[in-house]
Amino acid sequence: MSTKFYIPLLALSGFFMSANAQKVTLDYYFNHEVHTTTSGTTERYHYLWDDKASTGFSAFGDAFIRAGATLDTLGAAPTRANLKGTAVYIIVDPDTKKESPNPNYIMPKDIKEIAKWVKKGGVLVMMANDSANVELPHFNMLAAKFGMHFNNDLQNHVTDDAHFEDGAISTADNPMFRNARKVFMKDVCSISIKSPAKARLKNSSNSTVIAVAVYGKGTVFAVGDPWLYNEYTNGRLPATFDNDKAANDIAHWLLNEAEIGQHL
User: E strands, the chain, where?
Assistant: First the structure.
């Protein structure tokens, strides 16, 4: 559990409301995937706020908006200057050379800038993927700063839509999830932890899939998959899964952490 003092916010439908107009910034620099369209043009795709297709993050973005936040993007390397005013900074699935011809790797200077921003009260979200689809070596250099390591493994492997239950994780009685009771995470990597990181969600194999670290006034939230993208929050999953509710739960939790950091 977090060692921060808990500051209650305005309750709404069982959630804690975030401060008005907190800014959530999504990285467009370390993840900058492109593909060629049917017309022959090259365009960005995957984990974009404005992408409403299954590959996008529009549903997750809507969860932050409902919580009172605003959305932004960062297409440059992070610095304390260009992260100023950001409450939550999300880095998802950094590119491999398979995904981008010239990927922007997370370098020591980036780690230094991000860590200083977190220490001042920022909330960093690190969303990995299975090792075949994410650039783990440099991502783990950043994770190590906060006592975390994304493992080169494959958890919750799901072969097809007839085996959704292989990706099931119970979130019942987990304080991070106020409404979601069971979520779907497919083909995730586990997370090894040491101080100051702590496990916050484990799968049925007792492997950590969500970890959290308090670092200075800020918080780092790490998860082994970009599991809240549209494909798994748009109602395609069986009704027994609560990924749509989990998106709201996580959005409120992150914004609340940012609010706490700003008051320390």
Answer: 11-12, 15-16, 23-27, 34-36, 42-44, 70-74, 86-92, 123-127, 148-150, 168-170, 182-184, 191-193, 197-202, 208-215, 218-223
